[in-house]
Amino acid sequence: MKKIIDNWVHIPGIHCGSAALRDVMTYYGHPWSEALCFGLGAGLGFYYSVNEDISPTRMIFVRGPEMEPAFFSLAAGPASWKHADNDTLGTMKKALDRDVPVIIQTDIFYLGYYKSSTHFPGHIVSVWGYDDESGVMYVADTQFEGLLSVPYADFLEGMGSKDPSNPLNYNYMDIDTGNNVRPLADIVPEAIRLNAFKMLEGVRGVRGESGVRLIGEWSKDLPNWKDAPDWKWCARFGYQVIKKRGVAGAGFRWIYRDFLKEAEDIVPRLRGLGLPARMNHIGKKWSDIGAVLKDISEKEHPDEGLLRDAGARAEELWALELDFYKTVIEKV
Predict the structure, then answer these.
(1) Domain enclosing residue 11, as ranges
(2) Residue 182 DSSP code
(3) 130 and 189: one domain?
(4) Where are the alpha helices (DSSP H) in the chain?
(5) Could you write out the DSSP letters of every residue in 43-64?
(6) In-domain check, residue 58
């Protein structure tokens, strides 16, 4: 049997999660921008881990956990990741047969069109169809045009990836928004406050704790990267996470800036707080530190001066973000 949802939607985007959310909401008649979807999911975050058993041993991530469930919970009612480990393909097909698209977590290592030799679990794609004769699922993925075919075996391995950086458990969401989507004017301020709260209080995900506190921890430890056996890869991975991997060049902060600009049009009382301009400035600082990490990664030996510079820049970012989120809690 072959099934592809009629009127499937894919608009190539910047970030996997927010692009998938935009596709699904557009399919259901709500053509929201990718930046708006990212912001409504309270997508900003920051992880920092030191683990000698994984690669790189010093690892950062700049998006918060549970963005997709948070988005749907705010926009249309309670949502969470489900687990389809008993009959993954059957579960996907049942949803698709009802014309309900599915959002999944996977590992790009198993997606042939990436030709990746590196594991990156937690990658989000939307699923729009299947073909039993060809043995493939049809997915939409971030910057790629149209639907892409993924062999059943690769599809299952990706959803079940056990890479230690972020082990997966066949995580999926089959969301039918129905007529439950709440007015944007109601949910936009809630989303802004939620992201600020998560960053100030800290929230745990599979990768560990995410929050502004970890930026401070990272800033203190950056000079010590000179002693890491894989210091070059640590710096290169940090640069990629901040500037290259679907983050619009500034660790998602410029995507969030664009969300805040839209938020002012949706909720005029937000004007005057200067939130987009402040986030633009924070984004510039993230872009700058990403460039420094790139420079570090291209040295033959650890450059202690550059590592101290990176640490000072990270400390400045910690202070800027801390003040930003406090302002949100006080004034939004």
Answers:
(1) 2-31+80-174
(2) P
(3) no
(4) 16-27, 34-40, 67-76, 88-97, 152-159, 184-201, 212-221, 231-243, 253-266, 275-297, 304-331
(5) -EEEEEEE-TTSSSSEEEEEE-
(6) no
Amino acid at 297: S
Residue 62 lies in a domain: no
Boundary (domain end) residue, out of 174, 205, 223: 174
Task: Please list the residues that pair with 107 across neighbouring strands.
Answer: 121
Structurally, the chain folds into a number of domains equal to 2
Considering Cα of 147, then 151, then 157, then 163, what sign does the dihedral take? Answer: negative
- Bridge-partner residues for 92, per DSSP? none
**Contact yes or no for 37/14 (Cβ under 8 A):** no
Cis peptide upstream of residue 189 (ω within 30 degrees of 0): no
Task: Note the pLDDT tens digit of each residue in 260-295.
Answer: 999 999 999 999 999 999 999 999 999 999 999 999
Same domain, yes or no: 192 and 167 = no
* Amino acid in the structure at residue 47: Y
Q: Whole-prediction pTM value?
A: 0.96
Compute the distance between CA of residue 328 and CA of residue 253 in angstroms, rounded to an integer. Answer: 15
Does residue 107 lie in a domain region? Answer: yes
pLDDT in tens, 184-218: 999 999 999 999 999 999 999 888 899 999 999 99
Judge whether 67 lies within some domain: no
Q: Which residues are CB-contacts of 29 (< 8 A; sequence separation ≥ 6)?
A: none
Pair (143, 272) in one structural domain: no
Domain stops at, among 143, 174, 205: 174
Strand partners, 137: 130, 150
Bridge partners, residue 102, by sequence: 127, 174
